[in-house]
Amino acid sequence: MPKETTRRIGLSLGADICWPLCYEKILARLDLALPIGREIVRFDVKRVTIEPYDLRQPCPYDLVIDRLTHWYHTSREWVKKAVLMDGLYVFNNPWAIQSMEKQTTYCAMMHLGLPVPDTWMIPPKDYEWTADLRATLNRYAELFDLGAIGRQIGFPLFMKPYDGGAWVGVSKIDDEAALRAAYEESGKRVMHLQKAVAPFDLFVRAIGVGPQVRVVRYEPDAPLHARYTADDGGISADERSLLEDMALTINTFFGWDFNSCESLRKDGVFHPIDFANACPDSQVTSLHFNFPWLVKAKLRWSLFAAGTQRKMRKTLDWEPYYKVAAVPDMPYRERLRAYAKIARERLDAERFEEFCGKHLAHLDEVAWEFFGTDDAREAVRLKVAALFPAHEIEEFTEYFWQAVQRWRATEGSPR
Ligand SMILES: Nc1ncnc2c1ncn2[C@@H]1O[C@H](COP(=O)(O)OP(=O)(O)O)[C@@H](O)[C@H]1O
Ligand SMILES: [Mg+2]
Could you tell me if the CB of 117 is within 6 A of ligand 1? Predict the structure, then answer.
């Protein structure tokens, strides 16, 4: 008789409401008992609680899906302890989240040859003044001509925090006067000046979960609930493959299982502009039509990783990518393909496909049915109720619910 065993999955959550509910309910409906090796593997999912802990106490999870530790540090340190001491697999790698700012990701991907727009860093306009800081700046801070830097980059350009997120402190700058004014206003923030990709004819986000990538056209000027669209901008198969290779290269380079890469297309070239987005938005209120895909992608990747006891890569080995980067005269597309090959190996992409084919063949059907149930609608309503004013709850619940139903209609019953 094969031995029965249970793999424990923890959800480390903040304001998330909708996707965990859907994840839990679909997992229950899948009712998995997978023959893996000599065992029958079942899965149990619980929500990670916040409480005091002894650093030597064992971790009750095999795998944690984390949406919290990038801003809640008690949990981040608990996750790190569990990776170091208990063999926990977590997505995403908490050290990579903590240390890889936009600036680092720009530098690394520039080195690998990706067409990141020209970017400068400038010292901040203002500081928390201390005696040492005054002495340091008096001795070493060079006066600089902001206008000359602007002219060198060329207008329009974007001023944005080197470690930014959520569009905070981002401004588009059309001329030198506007650049000086924006710098005056930038306060203590350390800013980038980045050449605008303008005009661009397509803005896409490539959402990656393990080896799975979904490309979605993005409307930056639309209201929040309509920025993600329900299409991919009509990209060609070659473009899709390039965007997938780019996303997987970025994600594995930085040790992120779950990330989103923003790219702008100009003259047929996709310029990545913002790809330090580990643990991106997972809510139905932003993703709408794309939401079921994300829930399924998280299920597949977490079940694969927990089911096969995938080992988490604790440190980031960059040398293989640098070796490819050092090959002289390699065309960009070929180079990117070579990086993506490393990425797919690291992500066990082939074994993952096999696992899904063998063990999760019924997921499409189970999820398709679930996303038509009252439980799914309630998950949408609860998220809407947490974000929208009382008088808009019904209207927006229906709006997002219809988007999910359009997804069902597009997929068609997989039965
Ligand atoms: N180089 C650029 N060219 C064109 N648009 C840009 C550029 N950089 C930023 N933007 C615009 O500003 C928005 C916010 O900038 P982004 O780098 O994505 O910062 P955040 O991390 O805050 O999302 C982008 O979604 C895009 O609309
Ligand atoms: Mg962005």
Answer: yes
Query: Residue 157 is inside which H or E element, if any?
Result: strand 157-161
Q: Is 106 in the pocket of ligand 1 (CB under 6 A)?
A: no
220 and 270 share one domain? yes
Residues 172 and 221 in one domain: no
C-alpha of residue 179 to centroid of ligand 2, in Å:
20
pTM: 0.96
Strand partners, 263: 204, 272
Pocket of ligand 1 contains residue 160 by CB under 6 Å: yes
Residue 237 clears pLDDT 80, i.e. is over it:
yes
Whether 83 and 147 share a structural domain:
no
State the distance from the centre of ligand 1 to the C-alpha of 180, rounded, in angstroms. Answer: 19
pLDDT (tens digit, 9 = 90+) per residue, 83-103? 999 999 999 999 999 999 999
Residue with tokens 């008096």: 138
The answer to whether residues 33 and 7 touch, using CB atoms and an 8 Å cutoff, is no
Residue 99's SS3 state is: helix
Q: Is the CB of 273 under 6 A from ligand 1?
A: yes
Q: Which residue's C-alpha comes closest to atom 25 of ligand 1?
A: 220
What does the DSSP assignment read for 259-318?
A: EEEEEEEETTEEEEEE---SS----HHHHGGGHHHHHHHHHHHHHHHHHTTPPP--S---
Protein residue with least CA distance to atom 10, ligand 1 = 158
Q: Relative to the CA of 276, which ligand 1 atom is closest?
A: 21
One domain, residues 216 and 337: yes
Q: Is 193 in the pocket of ligand 1 (CB under 6 A)?
A: no
pLDDT tens per residue, range 304-334: 999 999 999 999 999 999 999 999 999 999 9
